[in-house]
Amino acid sequence: MTAHQFASDNYAGICPEAWAAMAEANAGHHPAYGDDEWTQRASDAFRGLFGTDCEVFFAFNGTAANSLALAALCQSYHSVICSDAAHVETDECGAPEFFSNGSKLLAARSPDGKLTPELIRGFVTGRGDIHFPKPRVVTITQPTETGRLYSLEEIRAISATCREHGLALHMDGARFANACASLGCSPAEMSWRAGVDVLCFGGTKNGMAVGEAILFFRRELAEDFDYRCKQAGQLASKMRFLAAPWVRMLESGAWLRHAAHANAAARDFAALVEGIPGVELMFPVEANAVFLRLAPEVQERLRAKGWRFYTFIGGGARFMFAWDADPVRTAALAADIRGAE
Ligand SMILES: *Cc1c(COP(=O)(O)O)cnc(C)c1O
Predict the structure, then answer these.
(1) Staple partner for 259: which of 53, 128, 181, 324, CB 3.0–4.6 Å?
(2) How many separate helices (H) and strands (E) can be counted in the chain?
(3) Which of 10, 87, 148 has most ligand 1 atoms within 8 Å of its beta carbon, as the pocket-test mutant?
(4) Is 91 helix (H, G, I), strand (E, B) or coil?
């Protein structure tokens, strides 16, 4: 199957910048296990982009990045507060609990997938006795699994609540670039300046093959994190192939350009399907996701026409727009939705 689809931003290939960087890194021999020039340059590029001297690590995928970051922030008897729609809760097969040796995820019921200071307080003030796993970390997803955004004010309010209760704040930024492009704010403003302690910055959904970055803004939290990565099988021996694409993505601005393109494609698609009878937009389109409530027969007809989409996330039909979202295919999908009602 080669047709351009919107089932997942992971259906897309590797963007030209990442591809070229891998080719460049492929010339000659280089030191292994991250002791190479590319890894140094990528780490420095992150520190430059974020305007702070953070600790930078790379993992193969987002599940590992999230799980290992959370594990670094707590002991096995601690707990992690998340939304019930969070990827760590619903889509990581228990990896956060596994890599933390049992830290419990406390999933707050949230209608829009977002955490609030009230929801966080509900967990920290509810039980303070020794029989309950002590809350130590809050994790938020920016943008959320259903394509919603936390405003800077909302992130700041959450981090203030975290400070009040001695909790660390982790951000799952599998689509961090899309959030920056949509809010028009700097990476610093949306992370450490807003009180985020650790950020998992997604490269894969931004157009790379692999290689999620883990940024520790409080350097002391990264103690021994290199050992944790190695033990988890996440230390790439040829690290330069994870790092080099980041150098090009960050230095050329491609990370933001690709995300802005994806966001615009999602907005265009939403505008094309809006008002079609039997089609309901489930959430405001704030990043690169469009969730539609579609009648089962409409879904069946779309599938018969060869369209792929997921229905197990957010309770509707999900359409994701990637760095290479094609306007012709976007229009074709919208036409099939219109024709199929
Ligand atoms: C895609 C995604 C991840 C990472 O998933 P992997 O398949 O492990 O790379 C993490 N969080 C969110 C919100 C995601 O959408």
Answers:
(1) 181
(2) 14, 10
(3) 87
(4) coil
Residue closest to 291 by CA, chosen among 271, 261, 264, 311: 311
Of the CATH numbers 3.40.50.300, 3.40.50.2300, 3.90.1150.10, 3.30.1300.10, which one belongs to the domain with range 255-340?
Answer: 3.90.1150.10
Indicate the Cα dihedral angle 254, 260, 263, 264, nearest 10°.
-120
Does the domain spanning 16-252 belong to CATH 3.30.1050.10?
A: no
As a whole number of angstroms, the distance between CA 168 and CA 224 comes to: 18
Q: What is the pLDDT of residue 127?
A: 86
For the full predicted model, state whether its pTM sits above 0.70.
Answer: yes
Q: Residue 172 has which token pair?
A: 């799952």
328 CB neighbour count, 10 Å cutoff: 8
Instruction: Give me ligand 1 centre to Cα 86, in Å.
Output: 10
Cis peptide preceding 143, ω within 30 of 0:
yes
d(CA 254, CA 121): 39
